[in-house]
Amino acid sequence: MDTSQVIQGIHHVTATVGNAQADYDFYTRLLGFRLVKKTVNFENNKVYHFYYGTTEGAPGTIMTTFPYEGQGIRVGVPGTGQVSRTGFSAPSAALLFWKERLEAAGVQTELVDRFGLVHLQFKDPSGLGLEIIGTDDDQRAPWNTDDIPEEMALRGIFNVSIVVKEFNPTKAFLLDEFGFQLIQETEEVSRFQAKNGGAGQYIDVLVDANGERGKNGMGIVHHVAWKLESDEELTALRHRLVEDLGFKVTELKDRKYFRSIYFRIPGGVLFEVATVPPGFTVDEAEPALGQHLQLPAWEEENRSMIEENLAKVSW
User: Looking at the domain assignment, is residue 314 inside a domain?
Assistant: First the structure.
């Protein structure tokens, strides 16, 4: 199998954040995403794992967070080897709406032009770098809320930006192993696309040759996940990375809603590769997504204790 052709675009982005209530309020009430899944960190059942997205939680619309406040986790340090910014798409005519909405909520914004598209940049309550990109080419249906008109609503993830110390090793990996195309460049940033491009298929690479290596913690993206279709493709990709390229790659992990592997690309950024199936309706129907705490099977016997230990959130 030619594994350079299996990656279809972004699956989700996962970040380490602070306060659970502030995180939930920001992504659902301010940005207007749906809480698609309310579960726990499979490695730490004292911490929520929130999945935010659109109606059915389609891969490419999902931002996920671990709210670690009160768990002894440090504040992260931005630097190289990290995702520096996650971008969401909205119709180009919606950017003024979002600028005014964010600033009315006390969020500072900045407008930046990149490759002919306007990026509205800002930070979430934990300090994560975010942006909204105005584009009229994203036809994905948004999640509808009472106070955000459908024609203004966010459609899902548009891109991620990463920072590395050296460009060429990262470039070679993206081109040769993920089959991406380098489509646009300036002195500051290079944009790659998966498959045929479009929202959810872009990664922007910035170089900071003198930058210090970033440290994970609250306010830092932990990893970006890329999607493929099947366990067969995932297994073949892992074999390629381990046996042919000598990468350190995790075993296949069952995340209940997908199966995945993790590894660091040249440049140090942590990538996950995840299957599209089975999806978020495996344990609750679409109309009920995000309404109840869902646990992996091995944690069900601990449900009462887990619910007692989790942060208190007003939904």
Answer: no
Distances 24 to 34, 228, 288, 300 between C-alpha atoms, Å = 10, 28, 17, 24
Instruction: Give the chain's domain count.
Output: 1
CATH code assigned at 267: 3.10.180.10
pLDDT computed for residue 252 by the predictor? 97
In whole numbers, what is the pLDDT of the chain averaged over residues? 97
Paired residues of 110 in beta bridges: 121
Tokens of 298: 């091995």
| pTM for this predicted structure | 0.97
Q: Per-residue DSSP letters for the chain?
A: --GGG---EEEEEEEEES-HHHHHIIIIIIS--EEEEEEEETTEEEEEEEEEESTT--TTSEEEEEE-TTTTPPBPB--BSEEEEEEEEE-GGGHHHHHHHHHHTT---EEEEETTEEEEEEE-TT--EEEEEE-S---PPPPP-SSS-GGGS--EEEEEEEEES-HHHHHHHHHHTS--EEEEE-SSEEEEESTT--TT-EEEEEE-TTPPBPB-SBTEEEEEEEEES-HHHHHHHHHIIIIIT----PPPEE-SS-EEEEEEPTTS-EEEEEES-S-GGGSS-GGGTTSSB---GGGGGGHHHHHHHSPP---
| Domain enclosing residue 196, as ranges | 3-309
Q: How far apart are the first and last CA of the chain?
A: 46
Q: Is residue 11 part of a domain?
A: yes
pLDDT tens track for 68-114:
999 999 999 999 999 999 999 999 999 999 999 999 999 999 999 99
| HSE (side-chain half, CA atoms, 13 Å) at 263 | 23
Could you tell me if residue 315 is inside a domain?
no
